[in-house]
TrEMBL record, chains A, B, C, D, E, F:
Protein purpose: Catalyzes the reversible phosphorylation of UMP to UDP.
This enzyme's EC code(s): 2.7.4.22
InterPro entries: AceGlu_kinase-like_sf, Asp/Glu/Uridylate_kinase, Uridylate_kinase, Uridylate_kinase_arch/spir
GO CC annotation: cytoplasm
Residues of the Aspartate/glutamate/uridylate kinase domain: 1-203
Assembly: Homohexamer.
Entry GO MF terms: ATP binding; UMP kinase activity
Region annotation Disordered: where it falls in the sequence: 217-239
Pathway involvement of the protein, from the record: Pyrimidine metabolism; CTP biosynthesis via de novo pathway; UDP from UMP (UMPK route): step 1/1
Record: residues binding UMP: 44, 66, 114-120
Regulation: Inhibited by UTP.
Protein name as it appears in the record: Uridylate kinase
Length: 239, 239, 239, 239, 239, 239
């Protein structure tokens, strides 16, 4: 199966320790051994936030801040590449084309951000669409898609399953309410929708659980199904 | 004044004739002579649509289609560059950095699309933000921002003035309703919002009117004002 | 067999319809399945002519016009790449080196123009020479090499077979007479001559016939043979 | 005046000594001080021939040999850049675009070859056309354009003046006769013809004479005039 | 005066706070206003060390670690660029050529590392040599060049002045003793020596003192003088 | 076994003749056939020295001279590539990353210099470290590592075997004495030391002997062993 895994920066390297990165590499290597074709997109996490905050104080505009964030995602990518050793493309892929070429020659491409004003959420979806992936997995710091921001609203429910249309509507709603954190951003949701691609949003703090979701389809997060696939509201459940 | 002008592809070269491109070049040259610093972003228009349709039939995915669209925007950019002669950077700027360097050395940068999954609407806003433009002008095929799609809903009203927040809300609503054409896309609206940048949306079929809007602030389109600026609903008017 | 196929723009996409491109892709895929190593160079066709005419009116010089033409050849290349799907290198090869690397890793490289003042005829010959191709095929809008321009001179005869020296002499003559269209340009003819490479010039409007020429050597066009190969004037025939 | 000077490799650095390069730099600096806008294209000369011969023995094909030649032209360009110091663009321009940008920011661009299957003669003409030069000067190892190869045919006459059409016809004739050396190649002649550009072909062994030709129009070589300019056959003279 | 300033990463952004970066920007802007031509090379500091340590645990080899370090130096460079605003080249210069071009067009280039196995100490010296700088300033975490590592050996003396030869000998000695920290590395010292360039090594924790050293030549660090310049051992003094 | 071979320019092409290059190609092809993974770094040799001398007279600084030297190393690399034909990456690898990608896809990468202020000695060591080579071979113009410069000091002894620490100490000593030629430079020695990599320094004038050293470990040069490996001073012997 061709899978793109989007690993949030704070999930991959919460405090720049090697452990979590090692675990991700081990999980990806096992999937690679089982014959899956893999691409990875990593986020910026705490280092990105730190640099961005300082640069903002120094007068950088938002696009310049995005460029700093992109540079940090690629630094994080280098950590994962070091851990994946010879299986990964030796440097972070800076464009979708580079990533696709790496995938075609049998390497695991590791991407970070690609361009200002586009999050790694969106990069993940676009890259998955570009390589015609069978599955897109968001390994994030929240354990799925919720009806509201679970950090704010204790009544927020986690979806077990939803359609891409439902995802887009939900994210659009969440983004309209300042302060609400959506698990993926609207552009990512729309790309998922237009591509008719299966996606999973789940807790990325357990790399082995991420691998299991890919291997067996079983996980505690949210399945996003292409529109037209039967979805049963009874499948929805509390978090 | 530093101004980024976003010229839709069907507005710049409706049928690939030289006339309209010449008029745009003349209008931009006059502004350049008056001391304005200018950047231009051009869209894809009919040639892009034609190539994209054919490529879609041939099995290209959406990202590949975006890349084709980007290539056409740069072709259109070459037409404008030819007409602007020595005033323009000699080739279309492929990144925000390239465009910014051109601007700094006194050339008029002409950009097209920059990356898949990002429209030239969004590129225009991001580039304007990147170079700290004073004004962003969308010269489009519709004469402003309407409360609904004027081609569909005869009761659609054109806004004379609105805040960036109002723009974001409106576009988000329009995008939720399939078939409704928004004058700029949601990402562009959000960039305008976060940058606190003045923007104008107006009919691009009269290049001289576009220049006049920049020169005098007078136009028949819609002014988008940074949040916090006083906006008077009484200023809203029918189309 | 290693073959470079030069497909004229008006032959590949006469009116930007998908059909012809699909047929070319099918023909190339069959050859690929049979074990041939393939490289393709595509021309500019009607879209190139349209953009070039407009840019010329706008004051572009010939080199700038060439650059516009090159951009369109690569757009056309993207159509063929879309149709060839995973068999083609994912983006048009912009240099001979890129094309050669694609070929070496088992992809079908699709090139357009490479540099100003060099036609895709010449690019095809140079690329064929660079990769040491066994055969170069020009799939053009005329059905072979004629003793004169068949559109002008009803007495023009099609050659069934000729030497590279004869081709160079003929093209040199044709190019001296303004208004005469040569099937390939002089630089291409000279590269064929110096490389000692077999070439075929034939009607490109039937992709299946192009494939058959490669597969069996049988076709209704003109064989250009390396100098020193026996050529029998009796083989020359009327069109 | 905007001038492109094409300096043959064996003229610029006959035996890799610094003297001739210094003289060229001095001549160009004087012209620069007088307000001329200058671009330079340098050839390969003896080092190129030596490497090419060895690479040919080692099995390189003609395109690979061209690439070696290009690399040497750029090495030679670095010598001239060293001598021109701060007036030149700091590295050889590898494309027409790079050269043009250097020219626009006030540097003297130094180009070598740009792409296989295109001589520095042709590069010079194409670059001159691209930047809309007023004059193109070929500083070569022969003192002008002759009716035949003066090394072979003692009856060869040097033209004092000729039209671009006459140049193209002459070169085409010379190229048809193996062993005849044309002072510029056919592609260069055709670009001169289509661009309607003034050109001078003269002995490059005296850099000061090259500068004088640019400064005063007086020289002992051959003037190539755009078609339509009055040319008087009586002006033709023996060498 | 043309000056290259090498700012250690832990000196520029000891804990990624904006203050120190702001102070450096202010000091550089004042020098820029006074007419000095400036280039800056920034180091990696604590973030580099953190990433490198993690990557080493993950199995990266030394060259890969160098690449990670380089990426961090450029991130740090982006902070300084943000603070310098329009005076700096908009992105970190990745090669000596890029930096030199920025300098020539009047921008302040900000470089980080350029290639593996070469420290930013060496980059600073090489860049200074490349642009023919009048002065190279190392703003480091130690207040000058000492006869031994002052953190280890309480008898270490700071040199007020020394020749390039003496610097090379001293650094060579220090590098032979594991654990001894040299203020600049041996390659840097050798480049200073061969270039015959003035250099200053001083405490970088007070940006204003760095500016004063450039402005007046007065400082509490060590002057490194080109060989042949009179140096008086009596000038040597305790730290 | 993964091996990086560093071939000095005067060893590869003493007088630009094809013979020696052919012999090297043959030796490398044999090793390739036997299953070794090979990377090659070539030096500049006499052509580099000639260009550098001329450029120095013309006023180039040391960094510019290094760039000229790098360009020549890549020219020499093209000779070897021509001779290796389809086994080599088609163009010289300009960065460590490029070289590594070539190696991973089964081609023999040929590198020259990569950046100013870094010799091909150092490039060889760094590239070997980057690709985790098992062995690094210096095929030089001296037949091993000597206790002093054998051209100057008749008492100089050749080491049969030494540790990396001993190599670093020796080279540091030699470099301190102007006029003494070290067989590899200090940076190279230090990289060998830190990488814990086996190295051989031997006479490169007999390519077959170089191949034999790789194949069997037997040679007349010097073995450099990682620290910690048992080394017996009794193994040291006269030249």
């Amino acid at each position: 199966m061709k899978v793109v895994v989007s690993v949030g920066g704070s999930v991959l390297a919460p405090d720049l320790e090697a452990d979590r990165v090692s675990q991700y590499a081990a999980a990806l290597e096992a999937l690679d051994d089982e014959g899956h074709e893999l691409g990875v997109v990593v986020g910026g996490g705490p280092t990105a936030r730190e640099y961005i905050q300082t640069a903002r104080e120094l007068g950088a505009n938002e696009i310049e801040l995005d460029e700093i964030g992109i540079a940090v995602t690629r630094l994080n990518g280098r950590l994962l590449i070091a851990a994946l050793d010879e299986r990964a493309a030796p440097t972070p892929s800076e464009t979708y084309e580079d990533g696709r070429e790496a995938l075609r020659r049998g390497d695991i491409p590791v991407l970070g951000g690609t361009v200002a004003a586009q999050t790694t959420d969106a990069v993940s979806a676009a890259f998955a669409e570009y390589v015609n992936a069978d599955l897109l997995v968001y390994a994030t710091s929240v354990p799925g898609v919720f009806s509201a921001d679970p950090n704010v609203d204790s009544a927020a429910e986690k979806y077990e399953e939803m359609s891409a249309d439902e995802l887009v509507d939900l994210i659009a709603d969440l983004e309209m309410n300042a302060g609400s954190n959506a698990p993926v951003d609207l552009l990512a949701a729309k790309v998922i929708q237009r591509a008719g691609m299966r996606a999973i949003v789940l807790d990325g703090n357990d790399p082995e659980a991420v691998a299991r979701a890919i291997r067996t389809g079983e996980h505690d997060g949210t399945d996003v199904l292409p529109n037209g696939h039967e979805t049963d509201p009874a499948d929805w459940t509390d978090a």
